C-alpha cells in the first residue's frame, strides 16, 4: 500500500475536495491549506471518514504572504518528501463589476494569478531537493486567449500557465513532475450561479478523475474534459477580425 | 430560470436554482429564496420534488461525510450525500445500509423526506427507522435536531414529510452488518395470485428480501416471478464488474407501448422461468437493476410516464390487488415494471410515511393523456374502497380527498410545516 504525503492548497474548492477523496485511501498524511477554518474542518472530517488511516491536518494562511507560505511548505516538507502537491484555489470574479471596481479587479488578479505562483514557487523550492513528487496546478481554458467576458480571470490564469511552463523547464530532469490542468467550465461552488444560463458545465467528479489520472501518468498539460483542447486550439488560432466579432 | 423535470418527465416547469453550498451558511440562502423546496437528485416520479416558477434549493453540494464509526456501524453525513457514496464506502468494510430503494442515485435527504423502502420491509421497515438523528434547518433560521428520543414530534413529521418541515442538512444513520457484498437469490415462477401470497407469506421468516415482478398484460393467468434473497455468507468465485449503459436520447415515442408490452412481458417471464432457481448475485444488480441503464426513464418518450404505487391493508389485499390488476390488463395500457410485494408489520417512523402492513403494487404507465388519467382514477376507486393509500413520491395526480383518506395523520402533520416551503404536490394535496 502506498503511503503518500499530500498537500492541497485551496482544499475546500470542489475540484480539490474530489481529488482528495480519490487520494485519501492511499495517503498516510494530508495537509489541507485554505482560508476558511470552518470549511477546512468540514472537508477534513469528510476525508477522515473516507480514509481513517490518514493523518489529516488543516491550516489557514494568508494566500499572498510569501514568507508565511514559504515557511508553511518548509514545515510540511521537513517531515518527509511531498508526493503530491495540488494548487487549486481560485475565485471567479464578476467581470463587469471588476471593470468598474478596481479593487475587485486587483483582488481577482492577485488571488487567481499571483497567489498560485507564490505557492508553486514555494513548493518547487522544497520539492526540488527531494527529487520526486508531482506538483499539479489548476489553470483554466480561460487562460488560453483573452476574451471580453472574462479576461480578468483569464489573464491571471495565463500567468499560472506561463509560470508552470517555466517550472516545467526548470525542473525537467529533477524528478519533480509539474502538471498543468486546464479545466473547462465545471460545475462547482465557483460556477453554481451559471446553472441554467445554457452553459454546459462538466461534472466535478469527472474532472477530478482526469486530474488524478494525469498525475499518475505524469502528464505535462491536460485539458479536462478533453474536448477543450480542440476547442481552445480553434479559439486560439481564430484570426482577430473574426475573433473580435464573437460575443464570447 | 431553468427547466427541471422529475423522474417521470411529465412536465418541464421552470425553476430558480439556488445551491446550498455549505452547511455552515444554510440559513442565509434559505432566507433569500423562500418559498422554496429542497431538491436532491429529482428521482421521485411526480411533483413532490417540483416547485414550478419557484425556488429549488439544491442539496447536492452538501456531500460531506461527517463521521463513520466503523466499530458500531454508524454514519453521519450531510443530506446531499448519495446512497451510492455511502454503500461504496461501507460495503468493503462489512457494513451496509439496512434499507435501500431501487436506485442508489438518491440523496440521504431525499430518502428520509420520502421515507423510502426496499425489498426487506418485513425485516427492517423503511429508511426512517434507521435514522438516529437529523438536523432540520427551518427557513426562519431555526435549527432543530431530532430523532428517536429527541424532539420525537419533529422527527415523526420530517421522516416522510416530503421536505415540507424544513431542509434536512445532516443525518445519522445506523448500519447493518454484512458478511459479503453478495446475495443468494432464488427466483420462482408463479401462475396465480394465490400462489404469490403463499410464496410471500411462507418466505418472510427465512428470507430477508422478497419481491415479485408480475405480468399485468397476459389475460389468462396472473403469472409472475417471485424473487427472494438473503445476504451470502461466503464470497462466490465469480467476479463482478459494472458497465453502465446510457439511453443517450429520448425516442420520439414511448418504447413501452401496446405493441411492445406483450412481447416484453412474455420474454421477461419466460427468460426468468428458464433461469429460475438459486444463484449468487452481487448486491448492486440485485438492489439496483435499473441503475445499470442511465436515463432509463427516457424510454417512455417525450411525454413521460406515470408511476402508480399503492398499498392495500392485509385484510383487503386479495380482492383489491386482483381488481387493480384486472383493471390494468383490461385497459390495454399495460405496465412493464409491475412490482408486487408484501409489507411487514413494522410501523414507519413518519406521520406521512407510505409503508403499512399489507400488499403494495407498483405500476408504470406511459403517459397517454386522458386514457391514462382515467385508468388511474378507476384504480383510485379500488384503492380507496380497500382502505389503501398511494405513494406520494410517485404521484403526480391523485386528489386531495384520496390523499387525506389514506393519510389519517395529515392534520397532526400540518402544524410542523415550514411556511417558507412549498411544492407542487403540497399545493395540490395539502392546500398550500
Backbone shape of chain A: globular
Q: How many DSSP helices of chain B?
A: 13
Radius of gyration of chain B, whole Å: 21 Å
Averaged pLDDT of chain B: 94
Class by SSE composition of chain B? alpha+beta
Give the end-to-end Cα distance of chain B, rounded to a whole number of Å: 22 Å
Widest beta sheet: strand line-up of chain A:
3-2-1-4-5-6-9
Q: Could you characterize what this model shows?
A:
The complex is a heterodimer of chains A (248) and B (432). Chain A is an alpha/beta fold and 248 residues long. Chain A has 9 helices and 9 strands. Chain A has helices at residues 14-23, 37-50, 66-78, 95-100, 102-127, 151-171, 204-216, 227-237, 240-243, and strands spanning 4-9, 27-34, 55-60, 84-87, 134-138, 177-183, 186-187, 202-203, 221-224. In chain A, the strands form 2 sheets. Chain A has a 7-stranded parallel beta sheet with strand order 3-2-1-4-5-6-9, sandwiched between helices. With 432 residues, chain B is an alpha+beta fold. Chain B has helices at 26-33, 83-90, 108-113, 121-124, 152-158, 193-203, 258-274, 283-287, 317-331, 370-385, 400-406, 410-413, 424-429, and strands spanning 2-3, 14-19, 36-39, 55-58, 65-69, 74-78, 95-96, 131-137, 143-146, 167-174, 176-177, 182-190, 209-214, 224-231, 245-246, 277-282, 293-294, 305-313, 339-343, 358-366, 389-390. In chain B, a hairpin with a 4-residue loop joins strand 5 and strand 6 (74-78). In chain B, helix 9 (317-331) runs antiparallel to helix 10. Chain B is globular and about 60 Å long. The chains are: A alpha/beta (248), B alpha+beta (432). Chains A and B meet through helix 2 of A and strand 5 of B.
Amino acid at each position: 500500500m502506498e503511503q503518500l504525503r499530500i498537500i492541497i492548497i485551496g482544499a475546500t474548492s470542489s475540484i480539490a475536495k474530489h481529488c482528495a477523496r480519490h487520494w485519501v485511501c492511499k495517503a498516510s498524511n494530508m495537509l489541507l491549506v485554505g482560508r476558511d477554518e470552518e470549511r477546512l474542518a468540514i472537508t477534513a472530517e469528510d476525508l477522515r471518514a473516507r480514509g481513517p488511516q490518514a493523518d489529516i491536518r488543516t491550516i489557514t494562511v494568508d494566500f499572498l504572504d510569501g514568507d508565511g507560505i514559504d515557511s508553511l511548505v518548509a514545515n510540511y516538507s521537513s517531515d518527509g518528501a511531498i508526493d503530491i502537491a495540488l494548487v487549486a484555489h481560485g475565485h471567479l470574479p464578476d467581470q463587469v463589476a471588476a471593470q468598474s471596481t478596481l479593487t475587485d479587479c486587483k483582488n481577482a488578479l492577485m488571488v487567481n494569478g499571483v497567489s498560485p505562483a507564490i505557492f508553486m514557487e514555494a513548493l518547487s523550492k522544497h520539492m526540488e531537493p527531494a527529487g520526486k513528487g508531482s506538483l499539479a496546478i489548476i489553470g483554466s481554458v480561460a487562460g488560453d486567449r483573452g476574451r471580453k467576458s472574462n479576461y480578468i480571470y483569464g489573464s491571471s490564469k495565463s500567468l499560472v500557465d506561463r509560470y508552470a511552463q517555466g517550472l516545467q523547464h526548470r525542473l525537467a530532469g529533477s524528478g519533480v513532475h509539474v502538471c498543468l490542468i486546464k479545466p473547462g467550465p465545471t460545475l462547482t461552488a465557483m460556477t453554481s450561479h451559471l446553472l441554467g444560463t445554457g452553459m454546459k458545465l462538466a461534472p466535478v467528479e469527472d474532472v477530478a478523475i482526469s486530474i488524478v489520472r494525469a498525475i499518475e501518468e505524469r502528464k505535462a498539460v491536460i485539458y479536462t474534459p478533453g474536448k477543450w483542447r480542440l476547442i481552445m486550439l480553434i479559439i486560439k488560432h481564430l484570426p482577430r477580425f473574426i475573433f473580435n466579432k464573437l460575443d464570447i | 430560470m431553468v427547466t427541471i423535470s422529475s423522474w417521470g418527465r411529465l412536465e418541464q416547469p421552470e425553476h430558480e436554482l439556488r445551491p446550498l453550498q455549505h452547511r455552515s451558511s444554510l440559513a442565509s440562502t434559505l432566507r433569500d429564496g423562500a418559498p422554496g423546496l429542497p431538491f436532491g437528485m429529482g428521482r421521485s416520479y411526480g411533483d413532490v420534488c417540483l416547485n414550478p416558477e419557484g425556488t429549488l434549493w439544491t442539496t447536492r453540494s452538501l456531500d460531506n461525510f461527517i463521521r463513520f464509526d466503523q466499530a458500531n456501524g454508524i454514519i453521519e453525513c450531510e443530506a446531499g450525500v448519495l446512497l451510492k457514496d455511502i454503500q461504496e464506502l461501507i460495503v468493503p468494510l462489512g457494513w451496509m445500509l439496512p434499507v435501500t430503494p431501487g436506485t442508489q442515485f438518491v440523496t440521504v435527504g431525499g430518502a428520509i423526506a420520502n421515507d423510502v423502502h426496499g425489498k426487506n420491509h418485513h425485516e427492517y421497515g423503511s429508511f426512517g427507522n434507521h435514522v438516529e438523528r437529523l438536523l432540520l434547518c427551518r427557513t426562519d433560521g431555526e435549527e432543530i435536531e431530532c430523532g428517536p428520543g429527541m424532539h420525537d414530534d419533529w422527527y415523526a413529521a420530517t421522516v416522510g414529510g416530503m421536505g415540507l418541515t424544513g431542509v434536512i442538512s445532516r443525518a445519522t444513520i445506523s448500519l447493518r452488518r454484512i458478511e459479503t457484498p453478495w446475495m443468494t437469490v432464488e427466483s420462482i415462477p408463479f401462475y396465480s395470485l394465490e400462489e404469490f401470497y403463499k410464496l410471500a407469506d411462507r418466505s418472510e421468516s427465512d428470507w430477508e428480501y422478497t419481491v415479485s415482478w408480475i405480468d399485468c398484460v397476459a389475460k389468462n393467468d396472473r403469472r409472475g416471478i417471485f424473487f427472494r434473497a438473503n445476504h451470502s455468507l461466503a464470497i462466490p468465485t465469480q467476479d463482478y464488474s459494472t458497465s453502465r449503459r446510457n439511453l443517450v436520447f429520448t425516442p420520439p415515442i414511448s418504447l413501452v407501448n401496446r405493441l411492445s408490452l406483450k412481447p416484453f412481458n412474455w420474454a421477461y417471464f419466460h427468460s426468468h422461468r428458464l433461469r429460475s432457481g438459486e444463484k449468487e448475485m452481487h448486491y448492486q444488480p440485485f438492489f439496483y437493476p435499473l441503475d445499470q441503464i442511465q436515463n432509463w426513464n427516457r424510454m417512455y418518450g417525450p411525454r413521460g410516464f406515470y408511476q402508480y404505487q399503492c398499498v392495500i391493508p392485509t385484510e383487503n389485499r386479495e380482492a383489491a390487488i386482483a381488481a387493480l390488476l384486472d383493471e390494468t390488463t383490461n385497459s390495454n395500457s399495460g405496465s412493464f415494471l409491475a412490482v408486487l410485494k408484501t409489507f411487514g408489520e413494522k410501523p414507519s417512523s413518519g406521520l406521512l410515511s407510505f409503508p403499512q402492513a399489507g400488499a403494495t403494487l407498483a405500476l408504470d404507465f406511459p403517459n397517454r393523456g386522458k386514457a391514462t388519467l382515467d385508468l388511474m382514477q378507476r384504480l383510485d376507486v379500488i384503492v380507496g374502497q380497500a382502505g389503501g393509500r398511494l405513494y406520494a413520491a410517485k404521484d403526480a395526480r391523485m386528489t386531495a380527498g384520496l390523499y387525506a383518506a389514506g393519510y389519517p395523520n395529515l392534520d397532526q402533520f400540518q402544524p410542523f410545516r415550514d411556511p417558507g416551503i412549498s411544492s407542487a404536490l403540497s399545493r395540490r394535496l395539502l392546500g398550500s
